[in-house]
Predict the structure.
Amino acid sequence: RFIACPQLARTVRRCLQRGAGPQPLLLEFAPGPGILTRSLLDAGFRVVALESNLDFLTDLQSLENSLDGQFKVIHGDFFRLDPLAKGALKPPAVSSDKLFETMGVAAVPWRADVPLKIFGIVPQQLERNRLWRLLFAMYECCSIYRYGRVELNLFISEKEYTVLTAKPGKTKIYQALTVLAQLGFEIELLHK
């Protein structure tokens, strides 16, 4: 559910630093104890963390208080962004409008540079449903895509990666999810 190994945190940080500007902004979801978060902060990233687990929230808030605006933690769940329910949202549900306002991210044209990098581990429970939801939001230009393109850096299972990158002719794994994902996303394996 989160990165606990410092060596893996350094590997992920190197992947996220590629193509990043001088003080890149990163949305990290489910950071857990914050091992990757600290590595990213040390590398100069500005990080906004969405954490839904109250057990980790206090330590992350303490880290936020010790820094001068480089880190912001929000009680929220990335996979409960923009729920369909009407009315006021109760955490861990979060509105992407409020989230992007908090991060200081303004809408940009889709032809512009990526205004935001997102990193997280997709839970294997309902993993395919979560990937479908991200895909639908991209085609609808809503939720995290309302502000332009974003760079998703996700840990997903090898099974789902195989489906997302399947080639025509692989009848058992080449599916609608495969076609739509390959049309909408540029999929690159960063680490295995």
The chain has two domains: 6-156, 157-187. The chain has a mean pLDDT of 92.
